[in-house]
Write a structure and sequence with these properties.
It is a single chain. The chain is mainly alpha-helical and 179 residues long. It has 2 domains: 9-98, Rna Polymerase Sigma Factor, Chain: A (Orthogonal Bundle); 99-179, Orthogonal Bundle (Arc Repressor Mutant, subunit A), CATH 1.10.10.10. Helix content is 70%, strand content 0%. It has 8 helices and no strands. Helix 2 (25-44) packs across helix 4 and helix 6 packs across helix 8 (158-178).
Length: 179
């Protein structure tokens, strides 16, 4: 049996994660730079855009406090994504009186320009998609990440990312054509 060499990027990233787990703030800052767009996309798929920015900070503060409890560096991506998803759930528990974009009537959308309303309608349509498509589409369309970058940062295979983007765009087009 022949052992395959671990890609240098993964090995380097694992070393950064392990350094952050040991309390290296600069290493944690590097993780923030690498993963902030993923966390933002996950949150943006679930909460209003204006609140997603602040929640990104909350997610990373929570991750920094809990990082020493992470068992392996390889679990970091999924663990951080789970923190982001849980923070979005907490956000909705804390703010039951807010109107979600899915429930908002067209008159409830911000009136400041047709382009702004269009972007809110598109985000509402994306949020109505299944989770896998929602997150991947936001990473691509909002965060501007490439397919390979999404695969690398999320742990999905490049083929899965392509399928999610293709199916998600098809579903999004169908939803927008109905409006």
């Amino acid at each position: 049996m022949q052992l395959m060499a671990m890609p240098a990027a993964t090995s380097e990233e694992d070393a950064t994660i392990r350094a952050a787990m040991d309390g290296d703030r600069a290493a944690f800052g590097e993780l923030y730079v690498r993963y902030a767009r993923i966390v933002h996309a996950i949150l943006l798929a679930r909460v209003p855009p204006g609140d997603a920015e602040d929640l990104v900070q909350d997610v990373f503060m929570s991750a920094m406090r809990q990082l020493r409890g992470l068992r392996t560096a390889s679990a970091f991506r999924g663990w951080l994504s789970a923190i982001a998803r849980n923070r979005a759930i907490d956000y909705h528990r804390e703010s039951r009186d807010r109107i979600s974009l899915e429930d908002a009537a067209p008159g409830d959308l911000p009136p400041s320009g047709e382009a702004n309303q269009d972007s809110f309608l598109v985000m509402a349509a994306i949020r109505a998609l299944p989770e896998a498509y929602r997150e991947t589409l936001i990473m691509r369309l909002v965060e501007g990440m490439t397919g390979p970058e999404i695969a690398e940062r999320t742990g999905l295979t490049p083929d899965s990312v392509r399928v999610n983007l293709c199916r998600g765009m098809k579903m999004l087009r169908e939803k927008l054509e109905m409006k």
